[in-house]
Design brief:
The chain has 368 residues and is α/β, with parallel strands linked by helices. It has two domains: 14-192, NAD(P)-binding Rossmann-like Domain (Rossmann fold), CATH 3.40.50.720; 202-346, Orthogonal Bundle (N-(1-d-carboxylethyl)-l-norvaline Dehydrogenase, domain 2), CATH 1.10.1040. Helices cover 51% and strands 12% of the residues. It is built from 16 helices and ten strands. The chain has helices at residues 26-37, 49-58, 80-84, 96-106, 131-139, 153-157, 171-181, 194-216, 221-242, 252-261, 268-277, 282-289, 295-309, 314-324, 329-338, 351-367; strands at residues 19-22, 42-45, 60-61, 65-69, 74-77, 89-92, 115-118, 144-148, 162-167, 186-191. An eight-stranded mixed β-sheet has the order 5-2-1-6-7-8-9-10, with helices on both faces. Strands 3-4 form a two-stranded antiparallel sheet. β1, α1 and β2 (42-45) form a beta-alpha-beta unit. It binds 1,4-dihydronicotinamide adenine dinucleotide and 1,3-dihydroxyacetonephosphate. The site of 1,3-dihydroxyacetonephosphate has 12 residues, from α8, α10 and α11.
């Protein structure tokens, strides 16, 4: 051995393969630009030829991110085979409703060792599968991950400092994504709780609708804070019952994403909730949006699953009643305020203990 000191390999030493982004919406476009800024060769697939031409000639996605200049090295195309040619990292930003169809179409063109990453925050309706599970089922790849975090596309596009989480049990997937997507305005943290990270991204959309609704009804910051915090309790209760690690909800893909989506008018889910709170029907709210708001479908799927599994989810159930059963937001708010007074952090004081203490106190009072 020579006497020279070996330096520790840094993330900048990791090879960044050509990147393919599937999806021509706001998030796919923001991610393509980040990867290009980081130095990767980037091709972006979309089904709309005019939009692809637009991106290539003017470097603007007029339909989904009109005020933002895309990195000039991003090449858009409707030719899936060309986009996937040589791609070592594939980022999939297709809404959950079309995700499996696109993956099935793309699968024959994936390179055998390509890293496949879902950035979609939704649940498949028929199967209740998360998108990384769909990816594994469709491809059998060992290099599957998810990217999720507080990542409003329009803010990323404006180069506001942002961070996300790559989650995978495959180390190679985590480090390649960190290397490909890190740049001066974007950081990527790693997690091995793929299920928890992905569940966090899907569930927070439900609560963004609820908080948007409360904002439209003129409720204040105490209300917002109560809703966000109880939402965190509720979503982690549900996700843990399905197999997630509760600690994941303390991170960017849990509380981080919940805060941003419940606080910003840039969130489409928040905007749908706001429109309903102003008195619009769900159909009107979704049509006026013209983009995907995953929470609209997620709420039905989660409420049904929670009822099957006996998971207590008063906020999601109340929202479901407003969105699909004609209850008014005010009725639901009153019901929620009068419902069981439970424990704050269930991981320290279980709900059952609070209930038992209340029953014992009531029994003692009755006997006096
Ligand atoms: N926009 C954002 O700030 C963020 C979005 N996401 C997630 O990314 C996913 C995609 O969202 P966005 O890009 O924001 O949506 P978007 O509404 O801006 O665009 C959706 C894109 O997907 C395309 N698409 C829909 N169905 C398709 C199909 N069957 N085949 C081919 N293309 C299809 C549309 O043509 C459009 O280009 C969603 O699950 C969302 O939750 C995640 C983080 C941030
Ligand atoms: O996931 C997001 C931010 O992290 C985007 O939220 P919306 O889909 O509600 O716009």
């Amino acid at each position: 051995m020579s006497g020279e000191q070996q330096s520790t390999p840094a993330i900048s030493d990791i090879h960044v393969p050509p990147v393919a982004v599937l999806g021509g919406g706001s998030f796919g476009t923001a991610l393509a630009s980040i990867a290009s800024t980081g130095g990767a060769r980037v091709r972006q697939w979309m089904r709309d030829e005019a939009l692809a031409d637009n991106i290539n000639s003017q470097h603007i996605n007029h339909r989904y991110l009109p005020d933002f200049e895309i990195h000039p090295d991003v090449h858009a195309s409707t030719d899936l085979e060309w986009v996937l040619e040589e791609a070592g990292l594939v980022l999939i930003a297709i809404p959950s409703g079309g995700f499996r169809t696109v993956v099935r179409q793309a699968a024959p063109h994936f390179n055998p060792n390509a890293i496949l990453v879902s950035t979609t925050k939704g649940i498949e309706a028929q199967s209740f599968m998360l998108m990384s599970e769909v990816l594994i089922e469709e491809t059998g790849s060992p290099h599957v991950g998810v990217l999720s975090g507080p990542n409003l596309a329009a803010e990323i596009a404006r180069h506001h400092l942002s961070a996300s989480v790559v989650a995978s049990d495959d180390e190679l997937t985590r480090s390649r994504v960190q290397a490909a997507l890190s740049c001066d305005h974007f950081r990527v943290y790693a997690s091995n709780d793929r299920y928890g990270v992905e569940m966090g991204g899907a569930l927070k959309n439900i609560y963004a609708i609820a908080v948007g609704m409360a904002a439209a009804l003129g409720m204040g910051e105490n209300t917002r804070s109560m809703l966000i915090t109880r939402a965190l309790a509720e979503m982690s209760r549900f996700a843990v019952a399905q197999g997630a690690n509760p600690m994941t909800f303390l991170g960017l893909a849990g509380v981080g994403d919940l805060i941003v989506t419940c606080s910003s008018n840039l969130s489409r889910n928040y905007r749908v909730g706001y429109a309903i709170g102003e008195g619009r029907s769900l159909e009107e709210a979704v049509e006026a949006l013209g983009q995907v708001a995953e929470g609209v479908n997620t709420v039905s799927l989660v409420v049904e699953r929670a009822s099957r599994d006996g998971v207590y989810m008063p906020l999601a159930s109340g929202l479901y009643r407003v969105m699909f059963e004609g209850a008014t937001p005010r009725e639901v708010a009153v019901d929620l305020m009068r419902s069981e007074q439970s424990s704050d952090v269930e991981f320290t004081l279980p709900r059952e203990e609070t209930r038992r203490a209340q029953e014992q106190t009531a029994a003692r009072d009755l006997s006096q």
